[in-house]
Amino acid sequence: MPRRQPEPATPAVAVHLEVVDRADTMARIAERVAAAGGRVRTVSTVSRVASAGVEPDDRPVAELELEVEQADEHALVASLEDLDAVVAIRLTRPMDKVFGKRVIVVGGGAQVAQVALGAVSEADRHNLRGERISVDTIPYLAGERIASAVRAVADLPRARLLVLAGSIMGGEISRAAEELRAAGIPIIALNMVGSITDHVDLVVSDPVQAGTMAVMAVADTATFDLARQRGRKY
Amino acid sequence: MPRRQPEPATPAVAVHLEVVDRADTMARIAERVAAAGGRVRTVSTVSRVASAGVEPDDRPVAELELEVEQADEHALVASLEDLDAVVAIRLTRPMDKVFGKRVIVVGGGAQVAQVALGAVSEADRHNLRGERISVDTIPYLAGERIASAVRAVADLPRARLLVLAGSIMGGEISRAAEELRAAGIPIIALNMVGSITDHVDLVVSDPVQAGTMAVMAVADTATFDLARQRGRKY
């Protein structure tokens, strides 16, 4: 699989929509965006209200966050505001401009918490200098669920790096790790029991340092190059 | 604004798609989903590949994660697999089934790290019992950027609760906090300087305990009811 292109060709613009939740609503929205020259990149349904009272005939209403590339804000609003299904529209900020790049930490609670400590402290330093890096975690102990989470990172918007924080990982998790790296997302693992340490980009023994290095690896404001550390253990 | 409906009417199903990235691709996909009786709920563009070699004539290819409600997996795949723009399709797991409910922690690095420590440890305990709770953080110091982040939480998929972790917050952040609560997302704040403590659901002095309570408040496996604690300080 080719390496993912981290930056979009044009900055995304975003709108928050209240829409009548009909079967064809999304197709009509996507058509209008296309007619304005844009490409729909992200849709998040943030709420569905069965009977909101917004519509006099109690049609179901949904709220969407829509991100579009290759169109400017005015063209996007103009293309959607007179659409029959659109109840309300307002400009908002694309998630990339707020929460930015994501470092994902998956594993056992004790280690995840320590990796997060290092990563959050380091992200704070870079975010002060204009970066936008967030640290997202999920504690899971069972191996099968960790393997699912590793695979799912490939489909998480804005995910840039995964840290595997545990005491023993291998088997299906190692296979999932190779799939994720092939999709272009590097992995740092704690030094631990199991085959996982042979299937990641970097192995770090101290969890706080692992979190710190993870953020340094994705920060444009750092001089740390993960590619030059590949295969090393610290 | 009516309170958001936390659970969808039907469980979402998800596919990972490689598509030819044309202007009308999303509209054609949404039409097919609608014809199969489904509603598009989430679209994430996880990569765009300018010239992937997948297509003989080097048409640009994008990879999407698509989540749909009100259609089953087979109907969803059947509706999309013969679409001209679809290069590849495979079933995947909806994000709700992997990363689950999200507790968001926003604020200064030192406090965010301590809140995350409590929240990750508590999430670990609940996830062992079948819950799916993740803890997502972003350290920001400047007030204006925190206010933006607070507002953006309303548009984050699966966000259930916000923890404001800092030493001084008020003004625009307090206004953003009231907007977020009106959108149905409760807020826990650390005890701190500024007006923010008058504009949240619960104030907690110890950051580790604030993180713990935040996870308890969203866990179905806990007996903690934030509504009964509203307005209190610990």
Short structural description:
2 copies of one chain form a homodimer. Chain A is an alpha/beta fold and 234 residues long.
List keywords for this structure.
homodimer, 234 residues, alpha/beta, Alpha-Beta Plaits, 2 domains, six-stranded parallel sheet, four-stranded antiparallel sheet
| Distance N to C terminus of chain A | 29 Å
| C-alpha geometry of chain A | elongated
Any idea what the radius of gyration of chain A is? 21 Å
Q: CATH architecture of the largest domain in chain A, please?
A: 3-Layer(aba) Sandwich
* Overall pLDDT score of chain A: 90
**What do we call the CATH homologous superfamily of the largest domain in chain A?**
Hypothetical protein af1403, domain 2
Helix content of chain A: 25-40%
Largest sheet of chain A: 6 strands, parallel
**Biggest chain contact:** A-B, 74 and 74 residues
Strand order of the largest sheet of chain A: 6-5-7-8-9-10
How many helices of chain A?
8
Tell me the name of the CATH class of the largest domain in chain A: Alpha Beta
The strand count of chain A comes to 10
Which class of secondary structure composition applies to the elements of chain A? Answer: alpha/beta
Count of discrete structural domains of chain A: 2
